[in-house]
User: What shape does this take?
Amino acid sequence: MIGKASPPAANPLRRTLRAIRDLASRLPQRHQSLTVIVGMAFVTAILPLVVLAPPLNGFGRQNDWLDGFANAGVFVLLAMGLNVVVGLAGLLDLGYAAFFAIGAYTYAYGASPFSGLDVPFWPMLLVGAAVAMVFGLLLGAPTLRLRGDYLAIVTLGFGEIVPVVFLNADTYTRGTNGISGVYQPVLPIVGNFGFGNPMPYYLTMAAIIAVAMILLYRLQDSRLGRAWMAIREDELAAASMGINTVTTKLLAFAIGASTSGLGGVFYASKLSVVSPDQFGFVISFTVLAMVVLGGMGNIWGVAVGAFVIYELQSQGLKQLNSFFGGLGLPPFHLGPLTVDLTSINFLEYQFLLYGLALVGMMLLRPEGLFPSRRRRAELRDEADAGAANEELVQA
Amino acid sequence: MSGASTPARPLVLRTIGLTKQFGGLVAVRDVDFEIPEGAIVSLIGPNGAGKTTMFNVIAGLSDPTSGLVEFLGQRMIARPERSWLEPVVWVVPAVVVWALSYAAWLAGLPLVLGQLLVLVGLGVLIATLITAVVRPPWYGLLLVRFGIFKSARPNEMVLAGIGRTFQNIRLFANMTALENVLVGMHGQLRANGLDAALRTARHNREEVQGRSEARRWLAYVGLRGREDELARNLPYGDQRRLEIARALASRPRLLLLDEPTAGMNPSETSTMTALFGKIRSELNLTILLIEHDMRVVMGVSDRVTVLDHGEKIAEGSPDEVRRDPRVIEAYLGKGSVA
Ligand SMILES: Nc1ncnc2c1ncn2[C@@H]1O[C@H](COP(=O)(O)OP(=O)(O)OP(=O)(O)O)[C@@H](O)[C@H]1O
Ligand SMILES: [Mg+2]
Assistant: This one.
């Protein structure tokens, strides 16, 4: 007999896997916050140890790894924020880096010799998030009535304009040079934040991510989160159910922007310098690719996806370089092309590889690496129905 | 059905001279139409007569070309009036603050105070503009004070008490049945993002109560046990029911049903028809029904209004309408009335 609730599974192994997956996706719903805290604590504790083991220890010292992880954390934060806008509310934002820039510059104004202010890092986290949120509201209020493509174009424009403004308003921003000497955070217990000592940054980032994740899970699983999903599914029907679509979309935009601003503050404090070229379209694109590849709409999926992609692009490509460099293969010919793997700098092909990964993903697993249950249902529906029919025929 | 035509019954909905044009096509032409409290009124007419268009105007989804819609005695939808005044309302608060800043400078108060007020004025301007976009209820009331009129948005019509279903089912396909109904309850619930983030008592209470109420609505339309299925996986008839449950969850005074039995077999249709009667008597609702199935129309309606090419051609009790030569002509074509 065919089960009522779910389509018949292909074989026991697949059924078991599906059961485990269902359990795993249901567990966090019960005790979200606890799950997030325990999970993040575990990951945070284990990562510094993992990099001491071969082969990872061969690629860099522990401190270099931790430094990279802290940077990756910035992108995890950005991806989680953009996921609210794109994955939950279904609004395509191509200028997300603008809010990242705004957060970073806010911190640079609040704590650097350039402005003469020295506001501590911790309150500045909130200030940066708030300022980015205000700009999110400002951009969103007039534009969120636009649909799909138009919104994408407007946000793309905004994302381009913001760095240009920072570039050209050089009396206030020092133009291309950017603002340097931005103060690094101070916290008595955790220790000195500094270039040589990435551990405090690493821990701080982990804490920020954990808090952001808890809040985002809570928002997703609420009246507001359902309204976002309803809008993504069918905006007109959502409005006909009493949802103020403008407010709801604006909130998604504002929350996404503030998360980005938070990331910006952290980034500025870590690098100790902000300049317009750090916030180009490349960032917006990278974060969007992380959201898509990670699994739109699934908070932890997007977070893991962002982390993995960041590490692949920063460490993976570097290792490819040295791997092929060390291999010392002779150049070979592909028709008219001469390929010399030894001298290829894979880092330069980062975006080509992104493109390939995206295309491959759309072909093989359009719902992303770690999709939410809904997305999978949405994108896999026809395929599943086909498979179920085949089984019926066979039986 | 003698009681239905008593004029003393209060009106739930009234349209006056309602017209909707799409370019050169007049989809609804100068329709005067009334729905008395507690009635089941059917709107019938051949394909393309303008029935759905009329629904959409009433529900606030599309603006009428002319005419107006009153709901519970209040004008809700009409052409905008004095809308040029609205931008003035936006800038006045900021201008007041800036005037204060100038006054502070004239009065010789510290410069910082004036500069601060300039910034405050900017903030006030931004806040006002965002308020105008968001349009909270009090903003609407403010506009009315200035004699400015703007049609209600669909969500505002829902809050006023109109619930609806769609001719082509528009469920939230990738949300569960329960979640669909919870979205329908959006206007009944109050917890905002902050409540959700902090998991306040209000949020927790509403989630528990809301879920159990949503279950009750599902059971009410006959979907007990289907709570956790994705809407897309429900059979067609159940999707229609779910749409009704979702509309009921907003606790409307007036329920708009657009061809709720379309594509159903006779037994499903009669279950559905029974549901309409139950809704009216138990929930004290008024229903406006678009329907092609004449057995349904004749069976449940107190009054029937007939549209043809956007015009109201007949109105009355089901029996009167059935015998009306113009109606027969509209449905069967000229020459059939001999
Ligand atoms: N958005 C639109 N733009 C242009 N024309 C439209 C639009 N919506 C409806 N129409 C036209 O208006 C007329 C009335 O359409 P409507 O959908 O209201 O008819 P209906 O009475 O609901 O018909 P049916 O019984 O087929 O549902 C039709 O001629 C239709 O083509
Ligand atoms: Mg129709």
